[in-house]
Amino acid sequence: MSTAQVPPVTSIGIPRITAGYDEYGRLDLQAHQEVHGGFAALSSGELIGLADRIELRGRGGAGFPFARKVRAVIDSCKRQDLPPVIVVNATEGEPPSWKDKAILTRGPHLILDGAALAAAALDAEEIVIGIADDGIGQNSLTAALAERKMPCPTRIVTVPHRFISGEGGALVRGINGEAHIPPGRKVRSSDNGVMGLPTLLSNAETYSQLAIAARLGPWEYNSVGIPEEPGTVMLTVGGSATNPAVVEAPSGTPLMDVLAMCGADIGPGLLVGGYHGKWISAEQAETVTISRKGFAKVGGTLGAGMLIPIGSKTCALGEVAQVVQYLAGESAGQCGPCRLGLPDLARAVTLVSLGGSALEQVRQAAGLVKGRGACSHPDGTSRFALSALEVFAKDVEAHANGEGCGKQVRGILPLPYTAEKGARKLALDWSRCDGHGLCSAVAPEIIRLDHNGFPAFPQTPLPPWLEDGARKAVNVCPALALRLIDPATSAH
User: Fold this and answer.
1) Residues 198-217: tens digit of each pLDDT
2) The domain 226-309: what is its CATH number?
3) Residue 128 carries which DSSP code?
4) Domain 17-222 falls under CATH 3.40.640.10
5) Would you give the distance in Å from CA 258 to the centre of its chain?
6) Number of Cβ within a 10 Å radius of residue 392
7) Confidence at residue 207, expressed as pLDDT on a 0 to 100 scale
8) Which residues of the chain have pLDDT under 70?
């Protein structure tokens, strides 16, 4: 069960979900039982009561109360006279996030315990566990299922490792054999989910927290953390951190304690909540405690627990532009605000990173997509972009006046496409370029002309959706100065 691709796992205080990781590495069933002990089955009423008393909310990003989900499924089952399905969302499609994969690879039985508790309480027809097709955690989960008996048939479904595949509606559609994209309209899985049955869908960490609470009971579970949000939180700390890690910490822990543990250089800003989250300044970060309430005080969000300090050694605007380009390419392509609006937003943000005066274009593009998509993807992308321009205002000014920040893009914000994975980049032979400017007319989302009329473009790998435009720019260059190269091999 290789865990080589998952960051190290550590904790602040006494570990709960991550208990036994240091001693066993990965907990098989015997080790799991030695560390965590057994638990008693719960009735549906006891399940709801436990979730209510520990204030259990979804840990996948939205933070929806788990007890309300259970009540909605029970009501739907009674109304339709149908059995429910339990779905565990362990897809974790965001490139910076690793917390669920850490549990999958090292403590899979906790996830299965939580799913089994819910299935037994609701007399479920089936348990379905959705994971990404990147292979991380699949062997560990398969082995765990082989070691135990579940209360109902349980299967693993793999979905494409894409940003939008983990959206609840997209996961249900994928399980049903449809396209792995959001449904395009509001569909409550509690009414019509897997196989048309009422479906209880929640995140892998959520089920793990439920399993911990069933063992400890609400009083002991609530003895850690803050009263409004008791228990621990699983966090992924990456970005500029010299010791990136998955960290389990009690709610209420000062944010700076977590960042210091991971050797994080915040630089001018910190991204909280992932690529649909929000940037906060270094000054704001010093005041935050790890909780939904703590992040809300500075206008941020805990989301799925991603903490990504940008650091002081990379071009922040270049990093942001790459991510917005990636998010534009991750559109499901089924509604205009997303299919057309996000590329416009990506172009405008890229122009700002290249020194163009496109701030108003960014705001206009973001305004045109906010609140108008069939899912939350346009809203999240806009929030990411607009908050970046606010936090990195000094960099925006430096780029706009022609001086730039003097830093290269170092890939601090992780992306699924890199030079090592075959992504290509534009290169210019300066001895040939005569400044015709045709390339910028063909591919304005990638190339702009500097004040001398010569092309300027990011020195970073291109997202796949921009390669066609880059190829057209190469083909129209009369001096044959522009080319597409593979940075890993320097091959044309």
Assistant:
1) 999 999 999 999 999 999 99
2) 3.10.20.600
3) E
4) no
5) 19
6) 26
7) 98
8) 1-4, 184, 332-334, 336, 339, 372-374, 417-422, 445, 451, 458-460, 465, 487-492
pLDDT in the model for residue 3 = 46
Measured CA to CA, the distance from residue 89 to residue 234 in angstroms comes to 15
Q: Encode 144-164: b = buried (16+ Cβ within 10 Å), e = exposed.
A: bbeeeebbbebebbbbbbbbb
Residues 264, 284: Cα–Cα separation, whole Å: 15
Residues contacting residue 473 through CB under 8 Å, at least 6 positions apart: 426, 438, 439, 440, 442, 443, 446, 447, 482
Which CATH number fits the domain 425-485, given the four candidates 2.60.120.380, 3.40.630.30, 3.40.50.2300, 3.30.70.20?
Answer: 3.30.70.20
Query: Residue by residue, what is the 3-state secondary structure of 419-471?
Result: HHHCCCEEEECCCCCCCCCHHHHHCCCCCEECCCCCEECCCCCCCHHHHHHHH
Round to whole Å and give the CA distance between 56 and 436.
61
> 205, 37, 222: which is closest to 115 by C-alpha?
205
Where residue 283 falls (left for φ over 0; alpha for ψ -120 to 50; beta otherwise) is alpha
The pLDDT value recorded for residue 376 is 78
Q: In the CATH scheme, what architecture does the domain 316-401 have?
A: Up-down Bundle (1.20)
Domain boundaries, the chain: 17-222, 226-309, 316-401, 425-485
* Strand extents, DSSP E, 199-355: 199-203, 225-226, 229-230, 232-237, 245-250, 269-272, 278-281, 306-309
pTM, entire model: 0.87
